[in-house]
Each structure stands twice: as C-alpha cells, then as structure tokens.
Amino acid sequence: MRSPAFKPFKKHILICTGSKCAPEKSPQLYQLLKARLKELGLDEGADRIQRSQCQCLGVCEGGPIAAVYPDFVWYHHVTPELLERIIREHLTKGKPVIENVFYAPLTEAAGNKNC
Asked: Region 2-17: what's the mean pLDDT?
C-alpha cells in the first residue's frame, strides 16, 4: 500500500464551519481564507499554511471560531477583518492577535482560561 502524498507546512489554521458555529458566516470565512492564502502565495512552498474546515471544534458559541496550530491559539468572533489580521500578524509573523484570543497556553499558565 502506498502512503498518501504530504506537503510540509509552517502552521495550520482550522475554521469551524459546523451548523452551530455561526453557520451564516463561517463557510464564507473559510472560502476567504482559502483565497487569501493563495493570493499571498502561502498555499505552497516553505511558508505554506495548511487550512482545514471542521464540522465541530467543540466550542459552540462565540463563532466563527478559528484555531492555529502548532501554537494552540484559539480565536473567537472571527470576522473577515480579523482573519486578515490573523493571516498578516499571526500566521506570517508569529504574533497572535491577542484581543480575540480566548485560549492559548500562556493564558492557562497565567490562570486565565478565558482571556
């Protein structure tokens, strides 16, 4: 049996597009993410950003929800404008957009799971 093809990536962003997580907004947000990564050339090469849509990330409020790995940073109420900031600041420069983070390892270490 042959192994599936795999392209390495720098970061992975998941967007919940399930029926309970802002279903009127999140599918369009995912399509915007897909288009922006392609426009910026982040869909190929060494700086490639893997993207996935998920039916459920287990947080059914505050959506659209996005999670960035391997950073373990979760965002709430993601708008097209916030998504652009996440792409420009977090995915490319490694700086999370703190004001919309509701979970990150540092927030738990500080005793605040819902920053």
From this structure: 91
pTM score, two decimals? 0.86
Give me the pLDDT at residue 4, please: 81
Q: Tell me the two tokens of residue 26.
A: 């999140």
- Between the alpha carbon of residue 110 and those of residues 90, 114, 115, the distances in Å are 21, 11, 10
Alpha carbon distance 65, 45 (integer Å): 26
Give 103's contacts (C-beta < 8 A, 6+ positions apart). 72, 73, 74, 113, 114, 115
- Averaged over 42-56, what is the pLDDT? 94
CB 82 within 8 A of CB 44: no
Looking at 20-86, list the stretches that DSSP marks H as alpha helix, in order from N- to C-terminal side: 26-39, 80-85
